[in-house]
Amino acid sequence: MNTVRNRVAVYPGTFDPITNGHVDLVDRAAPLFEKLIVGVAESPAKGPALSLDLRVDLARKALAAYDNVEVMGFNSLLAHFVSEVGGRILLRGLRAVSDFEYEFQLASMNRHLIPEVETLFLTPAEQYGFISSSLVREISRLGGDVSSFVPDAVDDALQAEWRRAAID
Q1: Residue numbers in the chain where pLDDT is lower than 70
Q2: Is 133 noted as a catalytic residue in this protein?
Q3: Is 35 a catalytic residue?
Q4: For residues 137 and 109, what is the distance between their CA atoms, to the nearest angstrom?
Q5: Does the active-site annotation cover 60?
Q6: In this predicted structure, what is the pLDDT of residue 2?
Q7: C-alpha dihedral sign at 146, 152, 158, 164
Q8: Which of 22, 55, 92, 137 is catalytic?
Q9: Inter-residue contact 150 to 21 (CB < 8 Å)
Q10: Is 46 in the active site?
């Protein structure tokens, strides 16, 4: 008989910014695990619009209602981060079939790097399936209303970031 395993999941991403779709996935996943760690990747190669510290802060605000959810920034290989925090599950979101090929490739690579960790895919509610951080950033940067796509604190932070960037 198997002993009870550590049920710590890691939901990694750049969260540039965190959206209501991300929050929806956390809402679906949090009850399934003892602890859910939202790992905010520094990802300098992606050239995030928001600083790591701000993305971590916004994710913490967006997810404050979840007692078993912890938000942590990281700047290492995901496999190392998952091992450091004791994760046993990698949580990934799939919005559309187009996400699957890339996510499947990542899951296969992670299976080689951290074979003791399983990848679990979840889909968001239908009303969030079209929301992506890159679309939200672009709409917001061009003055569009993204308030229905992101938590209030994120909407405010994006508007402040674009105002600051315009001044610089």
Answers
A1: 1-6
A2: yes
A3: no
A4: 29
A5: no
A6: 43
A7: positive
A8: 22
A9: no
A10: yes
